[in-house]
Structures are given as structure tokens and as C-alpha cells.
Design goal:
Elements (H helix, E strand, L loop, with lengths): L2 H4 L2 E3 L1 H8 L3 H10 L12 E3 L2 E5 H11 L7 H4 L5 E2 L4 H4 L1 H14 L8 H11 L7 H5 L5 H15 L2 H15 L2 H5 L4 H14 L8 E3 L5 H10 L5 E4 L6 H14 L5 E4 L11 E6 L10 H14 L4 E8 H4 L7 H15 L3 E9 L9 E7 L12 E6 L7 H13 L4 H6 L6 E4 H6 L21 H15 L22 E2 H7 L2 E5 L17 E5 L1 H5 L8 E3 H7 L10 E5 L5 E5 L5 E2 L4 E5 L9 H9 L9 E2 L7 H38 L2 E2 L8 E2 L2
Parallel strand pairs: 5-6, 5-8, 6-7, 8-9, 10-12, 16-20
Antiparallel strand pairs: 1-3, 1-4, 2-3, 9-11, 10-11, 12-13, 14-22, 15-21, 16-17, 18-19, 18-21, 23-24
Helix pairs in contact: 2-3, 7-10, 7-11, 7-15, 10-11, 13-14, 13-19, 14-15, 16-18, 22-27
Length: 686
């Protein structure tokens, strides 16, 4: 930045402190103590309200001459802290400045060097339907060129257009409309909704679409979770409000830096077969009212507009979504709307969240709804909803990860939901929620689960004899592993998230398979093994579930198989990880894959990564991933493979012993057979 350009910038005492990286009182001390020195503090050139304004060039020259402050690059960074055309210009021309930064991204070149007419023409070319920036740039009038110069300076000082945009947004928030502050969520709340939205699309064969009519915080968090690899479409929706236009500009600026993300302005551009997740917050800058009837009506409209490929994650005050509605005339109307939404069978989950999610109202609890397709094959009397109450909980990374797992599981069919072990939630009949006049998340009678029928007496005897024969076989030879002492320097660990972003690890979600496609092993039929949560946790032996190769190829054309060395892991109540040594398996959602790069492993080993994931606490992306020297990998891999084989053998034997124990008890009690002296054979009763 030249001195002439800095001459066009003005700065306050508080901004000088931020620029120099010192506390605000330090600047006042500099000013008073240097008054009679050879290098006095520059004099003010005006005021804005009660704040004095200073010439930015004079300030940076003074900092350089006196060596004051802790920022040796103050001259280059001045634009990020100063303002053009007076102190109010950032606020007055906020929309225009953000539009100019977005236009600079679209042009992929600085704005300087173009006249005002050219810039307006560029705006019309990139926004012909006036959806996000044309009118904002056109309305700048005579201020267009000075602000375009400032937009260039701010972008250069901030290093990226996205950082410059966030700088303007932060300044606007601190001095902007009250609705911006009253609807701002904590980072934990934003991450919860974004992580839930991403998890709902895991296993989809199509590129997912995430949309938010009310803002862009959720979509930015989604983009951060997706990283640089997973493709997705980010859509701000169709609202024409100032907040929606700003959100489109913000997503465009951030989306320009990621090739895997497609930022669009209209929900209508979404292909019918794509999975779409809608994120919504009430109230929000685009929907500032907190009236229960209006909020529930808006949610009802979202529900009615959803197709079978869509779901939604909605956040609103708990008194509206989950708590008992007070018996007033207006609330009777709200209660009727809420009941109608519940009857639609689209509310898959209701969660009352801890207080503190809304900084402006820290004592007000928020609630979350997950909406999904209705279960057309389930009778009205048998419909269910997942409910949870996290009041009093601290939203740690571990709790958030497990809650997200519960919410994703709530989207499954009856068999899947019944098989899932929820950490926080319980499954209740929807009719119980409708009949309940209190809180929707209060303890209600849980849905009953049907047990397995008892075996026939003859089958019990046959199974018991087969198990006894198998268990009587001799154990395998002992492990042959030799160790030697070494003093090798340990490599510093990384995290799974960092490994994914560096390209050392590739993340792949599991597949959502139809229930009737999952089958047992059939002799003579070409099948692929399935690895899911049950195989990872050991509840089911590997190779026990299969899918026809032909069915997989036809029904899941975008499907992919695991490869040898893939780390397959699960989160939530059945958290764990395993290494797929063979490959060519179908990974069943919610299990996922981490694939270590063969060319750029960066010291990572599948067996070590699986162990780290199994021992983790909290968000799997932040899990510590230990690294090791390449020379030590082959021997360790072979030793761990031998240990894993022995574990599998013992696991089978332990399962057989457990099954035999149950058969002995059931058979003896039911009279199917009698147990003779230990070590003798069993005989059936006549």
C-alpha cells in the first residue's frame, strides 16, 4: 500500500491500538508523553460522534519512526483497521463494500484500473437478475471508485477476500442493527446444526445440497466440515431480503476458494435426485419475529415443501418447539399448528438443548427439530419420534458428536432405529406426544421392542452339540513376535482433520442400503461382504452380512468398495474402528472410511490410526493421530495382523461359549435335553 493510498484512510484511537497490537490505554499514553518530544503524536483531523479521527498515513509513519507498537507491518495492514471517507463509511456503505469484494472474486482481478461505468457493467454481467450485488454497486454512485480502491486495499491487507469480508462483517456486527446481535448463535450451536446436516447426507450417492434462507453461518460451518474434498452445493435460498443478499455474497466469496463447493443463489437449480438439507433458525436476521404462531407456520411451510429427498434441521426457542405452550388464545393456535406438524410424521427428532446457545439471551433454552420423509408404510398408531433433553449438559465435542449420531439414526426405518443404541434419546410413539400436554421432551413411555422367539427343543440340542464339537478343537499355536530395544525419535502427532486437509487421508462416507438388499451368505451366489457398526463393535462377525454384486451394481451405480488397509470406523454409542485387511467390502452407514494415501502417508499407519480412533473421546475429526517412521511400519503391521487374527479366533470362541451357556440353560430348563456329568456327551430326552 502506497503512502498516497494511506492518505485516503482515516482511523480512530481504538483502531490504532488494534493496528499496533497494543491495549487502548497505551495509545493515550503515547499521545500524552510524546506531546513535547521531537516526534509528537499526529494531531486529529476531525471527529465522528465522540471519536477523534486521524490520518492513517501519518499514524503508520509515526509508528515506524518511533518503533512503537508490536506490528512491524502496520503500514501494510492499515486498510484492515482504517476506514475510507470518514469513520461512518464502513457502516454506511457496508452493503456496497461487501458487494465490491464479491465482484472482485468473480472478476478474479483487482478492481483498480477500471472506471465506474466498467464496474457497473461487470456487476450486471455477473448478476443479471440482481440477486446479490448489482443494485448495491449501482447505488454507490460517486463513492464507487474510492470504495473500490478501498476494497482492493482491504483485501490485500487481509491477505484473502474471505478474511476481508469477515472483517467488514465483524465491524458491522459490533455497530449494526440489534437483530444481528439478538439472533447470533454460539459457535457450538452453529457447529451442532452444521454437523447434523452433513451427517444426514452421509452415504448419499448424489452430491448433497445444503440450503439456508436466513443467513450463511450454518453454510460456512458446513463448508468447513466438508473440507477440500467432499463435493456439495451450498444454496442460500430464494429470499430477496437484505440479509439473504448478504448471505449470497458471503457464500460466493468463501466458495470461490474451494473447488469442491458449488455456490448457487436459487434452490430451483437443485437437481431432483440430489439429497437436500435445509437449515433454518428462528428468529433470524431474515425472520426476526419470535411469535410462536408465525415461527411454527414457517416451519409448517418448510415441512409441506419438502420432497422425499429432503430433510431439515430447525433451531428455535424451546418454549416454541419443545416446551409446554401456556394455555392462552394465541398459544392454542400455536399448539394446533405444532400438533399438525407432528401428525405429518415428518418430525423425526426433538431435542431440548442446554441454555447459553444464544449469547443475547443466555438463560433461554433452544430446541432442535429434525424433519425428514414421512414413513408411508407405518400406520398412524405406530409412528414414532425421537426425543431428548440435554438441559444442564455442557455441549462438549464428545456430547455433540454422540448427539449428531443419535439425530442421524433417527432418520432410519423402524428396524434401523430399533437396532440403534441411543446415548441421549428415547423413542416414543407420536400419539403419546400429541396426548401429552406438558413438555414434548419429558420422560414418556418408551416404545416397546419385540424380542426373538424361542428356539424349538430339537434345534436347541443340535446347536448345543455343534458348539461343543467346535469348542473341543485344539487352540492355535502361540504368537511368535520378537521385540528389541530402540531409541528412535518419536514423530509429532497430527489430527484426523489435519490429515484429511493435507491429503494424507481421504474421508469416505458409508452407504445407505435398503433393508431387503442385505442378506446372509448364499452358496453359489456372487456377493460382497458388508461392514457396518455391528461388525466394528463385534456384535456380528465379519462376513455375516452380504449384498449381491449384481444388486449393488444396479441399485447403487455410484457405490464404492473398500480397499485393503482402509480404516473403517463408527461414532456414537458403538464407537470403534477396524482395519479392512481384504478390501472389496461395502461399508454400511453410519460406518465410514478413512483411507491413508499410499504416496503421502505422512507417517500414518492404518492399524495405529484405527487404535487412535477406538481410544478417542470427543469429535472424531479432532482425534489425535499418531505417526511413526516408515522403516518401522512393515514389522509392526505384520505383528498387529497376527494379533488381530488371534483376537478374531478368540472372539469366535468366546461367542460360541456365550451361545453354549445360553443353550445349556435353555435346553435343561425347557426339558429339551439333560446335562450329564462334565466331559460326557449329551443325549436328547425321549
Amino acid at each position: 500500500m502506497t503512502k498516497q493510498q494511506r492518505q485516503q484512510l482515516q482511523i480512530t484511537l481504538s483502531q490504532i491500538a488494534n493496528l499496533a497490537q497494543v491495549q487502548r490505554p497505551v495509545v493515550s499514553m503515547w499521545r500524552s508523553r510524546s506531546k513535547n518530544s521531537a516526534d509528537p503524536f499526529p494531531v486529529s483531523i476531525g471527529t465522528s460522534g465522540r471519536q477523534e479521527l486521524f490520518n492513517a498515513a501519518e499514524i503508520t509513519d509515526w509508528l515506524t519512526a518511533t518503533g512503537r507498537g508490536n506490528n512491524p507491518h502496520a503500514a501494510e495492514d492499515a486498510a484492515a483497521f482504517a476506514s475510507p471517507l470518514g469513520q461512518d463509511s464502513k457502516d454506511t456503505h457496508f452493503a456496497g463494500l461487501t458487494a465490491l469484494i464479491a465482484l472482485r472474486c468473480l472478476m478474479d482481478m483487482p478492481l483498480g484500473g477500471h472506471n465506474a461505468e466498467d464496474l457497473v457493467d461487470f456487476a450486471d454481467e455477473y448478476d443479471p437478475d440482481n440477486e446479490f450485488l448489482f443494485v448495491e454497486i449501482e447505488n454507490l454512485g460517486p463513492n464507487l471508485l474510492p470504495l473500490a480502491t478501498y476494497a482492493d486495499l482491504l483485501t490485500d491487507a487481509s491477505y484473502t477476500a474471505a478474511a476481508a469480508f469477515e472483517q467488514l462483517l465483524g465491524d458491522r456486527f459490533r455497530a449494526g442493527p440489534a437483530v444481528q446481535a439478538t439472533t447470533m448463535l454460539t459457535a457450538e450451536a452453529i457447529e451442532l446444526l452444521a454437523a447434523t446436516a452433513v451427517e444426514l447426507t452421509a452415504g448419499s450417492e448424489q452430491e448433497p445440497v445444503f440450503t439456508d434462507d436466513g443467513g450463511s453461518d450454518f453454510l460456512l460451518a458446513v463448508a468447513d466440515i466438508l473440507g477440500e474434498a467432499a463435493p456439495a452445493t451450498l444454496c442460500v435460498g430464494t429470499l430477496a431480503s437484505e440479509s439473504a443478499r448478504l448471505a449470497r455474497r458471503r457464500m460466493l466469496v468463501h466458495g470461490q476458494t474451494k473447488e469442491n463447493l458449488h455456490v448457487t443463489n436459487q434452490a430451483g437449480t437443485v437437481r431432483e435426485q440430489q439429497v437436500k438439507v435445509r437449515l433454518a433458525q428462528f428468529p433470524s436476521p431474515s425472520f426476526p419475529t419470535s411469535d410462536a404462531v408465525e415461527v411454527l407456520t414457517a416451519i409448517d411451510n418448510i415441512s409441506l415443501e419438502m420432497t422425499h429427498q429432503e430433510c431439515a434441521v430447525v433451531l428455535a426457542p424451546a418454549p416454541i418447539l419443545s416446551d409446554s405452550l401456556l394455555r392462552t388464545t394465541q398459544n392454542r393456535e400455536a399448539e394446533a399448528i405444532r400438533s399438525d406438524i407432528l401428525r405429518s410424521d415428518r418430525v423425526r427428532a426433538i431435542v431440548r438443548l442446554p441454555q447459553g446457545m444464544l449469547p443475547s439471551s443466555p438463560r433461554q433454552a433452544q430446541a432442535l427439530w429434525v424433519l425428514g420423509p414421512a414413513h408411508a408404510d407405518v400406520s398412524i398408531a405406530d409412528r414414532w419420534t425421537m426425543v431428548a433433553d440435554l438441559s444442564g449438559q455442557e455441549m462438549t465435542a464428545s456430547i455433540r458428536a454422540d448427539l449428531v449420531g443419535d439425530l442421524a439414526a433417527s432418520m432410519g426405518n423402524r428396524d434401523y432405529v430399533w437396532a440403534h443404541s441411543f446415548r441421549f434419546a428415547q423413542i416414543v410413539r407420536t400419539r403419546s406426544l400429541l396426548a401429552n400436554q406438558g413438555s414434548l421432551t419429558a420422560k414418556l413411555p418408551a416404545q416397546e421392542k419385540t424380542g426373538r422367539p424361542a428356539q424349538a427343543p430339537t434345534a436347541q440340542l443340535i446347536d448345543a452339540e455343534n458348539l461343543l464339537e467346535s469348542l473341543s478343537q485344539s487352540p492355535s499355536a502361540p504368537l511368535s513376535i520378537t521385540l528389541s530395544a530402540e531409541n528412535r525419535t518419536e514423530l509429532s502427532p497430527t489430527t484426523v482433520d489435519a490429515a484429511i486437509k493435507s491429503g494424507a487421508v481421504k474421508y469416505l462416507p458409508g452407504h445407505r442400503l435398503a433393508d431387503d438388499h442385505v442378506e446372509a451368505e448364499l452358496s453359489g451366489r456372487a456377493q460382497l461382504p458388508i461392514i457396518g457398526v455391528e461388525e466394528i463393535s463385534g456384535e456380528l462377525p465379519c462376513e455375516s452380512r452380504k449384498i449381491s454384486q449384481l444388486v449393488f451394481a444396479n441399485a447403487y451405480p455410484q457405490g464404492r468398495l473398500s480397499e485393503p488397509g482402509d480404516v473403517i470406523f463408527a461414532t456414537g454409542a458403538h464407537a470403534g474402528a477396524m482395519v479392512d485387511e481384504v478390501g472389496a467390502a461395502v461399508v454400511l452407514y453410519p460406518a465410514r472410511i478413512l483411507r491413508i494415501s499410499a504416496k503421502n502417508a505422512n507417517g500414518l499407519l492404518p492399524e495405529v490410526l484405527a487404535r487412535d480412533l477406538s481410544d478417542r473421546t470427543g469429535d472424531w475429526r479432532q482425534c489425535t493421530a499418531r505417526r511413526m517412521h516408515d522403516g518401522a511400519k512393515p514389522a509392526l503391521s505384520a505383528a498387529l495382523a497376527a494379533v488381530a487374527a488371534e483376537r478374531r479366533r478368540l472372539a469366535v470362541r468366546l461367542q460360541q461359549l456365550d451361545e453354549l451357556s445360553g443353550l445349556l440353560v435353555d435346553g435343561a430348563v425347557h426339558g429339551s435335553f439333560s446335562v450329564l456329568n462334565f466331559g460326557m456327551t449329551t443325549e436328547g430326552t425321549s
